[in-house]
Structures are given as structure tokens and as C-alpha cells.
Description:
This protein has 504 residues and is mainly beta. It has six helices and 22 strands.
Amino acid sequence: MKRTTFFILLLICATVSAQNIEDVLRFSIENTHGTTRYQGLSGAFGALGGDLSALNNNPAGSAVFNNSQFTMTGTNYNRDNTATYFGSTSGTRFNSFKINQAGGVMVFKNYDKNADWKKYSLAFNYDLVNNFSNEFFARGNSNEGIDNYFLAYAQGQPLGPLFVQDGELIEEAYLDIGSSLGFGPQQAFLGFQAGVIDPVDINDDNNTDYVSNADYNTVNQEFLHSTRGYNSKFTMNMGTQYKDFLYMGASLNFHSIYYEKYTQLSERGYDSASEIQFINFDNLLISRGQAFSFGLGLIARLNKYVRLGGSYQSPTWYELTDDLAQRINSDSPVKNPDITFIDFNIVNLFPRYKVKSPGKFNGSMAIVFGPNGLLSFDYGYQDMSNAELRPTSDSSFSTVNSEISRELRSVSTFRVGGEYRIKQLSLRGGYRYEQSPYVNRITIGDLNGFSAGIGYNFGGSRLDFTYSRSERDTNVQLVDVGINTPAGVNGVMNNYSFGYTINF
């Protein structure tokens, strides 16, 4: 047959999808982005309000504004990752710049001094919930090679379907196996056609036992993990002030998601007698979708100095689609030479699926010292074990949901922030702590972060700058199955944010 270059899109049954806990947490964990002032106080704004990104903590915050305003913020994200793998350490730095916030609020005052309802507010805000741009590189000598990945999927799989049929292109066979048999047999097909694994009896189509063609005690592995994309949120908010002590608000949130993950695993250094001396295995995953959530909140002014806040953020309901492309190569003498035709032009398109991230409760307190400054404290609670993949009737999703309820736990978040004003100058600082969502506290560790900022009020406008730093340890699996030796990654994020606010 004549081979032409083209994109192949194939719908794979939902029952053979490859989503996991990582997919759920990717969209359930949110970072502290937002306006420069919001970042300067490490997001401790639940009882303060008067800031557009504070609507993320408490929708009642829009009713605190005394006048209409517009704010825009840009941030330079600097990530410094140190990966440790079998005693070898590798460092990677990555920079990206994004306009991470833009929005405005309109305040409508009631000039009847005897009225109970003092004012109303309408706010519209764009916030970057997560910036997925990141990268790390790990290398080391492992005793578990990539052959284990393919063996894990191949064992128990009949050999017959793993052959390329007469008159069939290898890329057609790859997609057909994924469509008819599922993701696991498709990975077994890749390993077999690349010569990484072989059946015990190649003449028996019913053979279900496989062996590796790679001989090693340890093998040198190099692993590149690179991600791009965003989870952004557009908020429509309405708030109101009742008398002089109560603020109320509600928000509707609309998310837009794009996520791209590229991984490259290369192996060298097998035994000199091994049939294979190198294997390269690349994967490109792209996720796209939308989501919706809502929020309700209250702020009570107890007296001249003290404010209390409480809010509820609903679960976020995501609708997503995944595209997966793969390529593999080796120097195996028994590989199919056409294996290189399976590349990033050959795309597996998975059906639409849903992720429900858990709802969140926030409680907060602030002490306001008139025009001189303030102190604020926020506490958030979110039970990650309630997250789930949908439809729950999907057997593979049910398996993942059982893992979620077993391996994830409730997460508490603490944020403290303060601001001190010297005439037109404002000095800010904050600290935040977020618990690990995992019961073992190892797969993803606790997060610690602090911030410092400065602002200058020109009267009709304000210019702000904030530096924030956060640090978290994670253990990243090189592949889903077969290699049980994760790379330990210490991730440090340094953000430099500039914001401009104009009052109307």
C-alpha cells in the first residue's frame, strides 16, 4: 500500500480510557495568582474584600469597594526544579510571562442615608487559576527499565492481535488495536513492534506470556517532563452591603482549560550482550475543556476594627477531552522497521469525560487599623477524597475513584497577610501553608510560601509590585506502570508581579 502523511483521529471507547489521579489533582489544586495586592498578602483576603481576586476567597468582597475601578496584573513565573533520581541530581530553570489577571467592578451607591441597603456592586474578573508552564529533567541508573512498562501491559494479552495484518499499515494497526481492544493492548503492541519485548512462543497466536529483549542489572535513564497551558477563570459577581455591618455576594465562574504534557524517556547502558542498546519512548498528551463553579459569601463588620468572613466555593465541574500521541524507537534487531511511522501525527482521541473537583469552605478574620494598615487570616478546607472522574458507571473510572477515596485526604490551607501604610506608600507581606492532598504526604508534599510587596497610591490610580515564593516536593512516576522508582522533584516558584489599578 502507498503510505501518505496525515493525521488520524480515532475515538477510543470510554471503558479503555487512561485517566488517573494525576488528571483529577491537576484541576483540583489551585495556586495563589491574582492581583498584585492579593499576592502580596498571600491571598489572605477572605474577610477584607475590596480586591478583584479576593472574589476567589469570598464573593462578598465586591461589596466592600467604595468606588468603581479596573485592575490589570502581569506576572513573570520563574520555576527552579531540582530532580533527584538514584542519587543523581539535575537542575532545570523555566521562565514564562502571562497577563494573569484583568477585571473591573462597578459600584452603585444608595444616596438615601436612611436606606438599609447601602450599595450594590457588579464585578467581572479574569484570573489565572493555574499556569501549567513547567519543566524538569532527571537522570540516573535504575534497576527498572522501560521494558517493564510494556511487559506490565502485555502479560495476559493474546499475541495474535499484536501482529500487523497483511495489507495493513503499522499506524493503522496501532489505532485499530486502541479502538477495539483498549489502551493496555495498544501499549503491548508498541513494545512488541519496537522489539522491546517478545512472546515466549512467537508461533502461537494464543501466547499470553512475554519476555524482555533488554539485558541489564542497571540502565541509564534520562527523563524529560515538560508541560504547558493554563486553567483560567472568568468570574461574574454581584454583591451588596446591608446597613454598616454586613456584606453579601455571589459569583458564577467559567473556566477554560488547555494542558499539554510532553514526556521523553531515553535508556542507554544495557549489558554488552543485550540485543538492545537504546530505547526512546515519547508521549504527548493534550487536554482541553471547560468548567463551571459558583461561590457564596458573607463578610460581617463586628466593630470598627474586626471583620469576619465565611464563604462556600462549590465543586468545579469540568468537561474535558484528551488527545494522546506516542512514538518509540530502539536498535532491537527484531523491531518492525516501520515503527517510526507511529509518531505525533498519529493521534488517539479519547471521548469526552468529566472531573468533579471538591467544594471548599473558607473562614477568615481581619483586623483593620483604620488608614494605617491591617492584619488578615484565612483558613480553607477541601476534602480531596471527594473528587471523582465521571461517568462513574465507567469501570475504569470507578477503579480510579476508589483510589482517590483511598489515597487522597482533606486539605487545610492557612494564609496570613498584613499591610502597613505610610501616606501613599503601602508595604505588604504574607505567608501561606497548604497540606499535601495525599494520605502518604510523599507523592505530593506540603506547600510553604511567602510574599512581600509594595504599592504606591497616586490618588486616582495605584501601582503595585509583589515578589512571592513557594516550595513543594513531589515524586513523579516516569510512566504509569512497570517502573516503581519515581523522580523526587523539589519545585521552587518565584513570581514577580506588576499591577496597575485605576479608580473611577
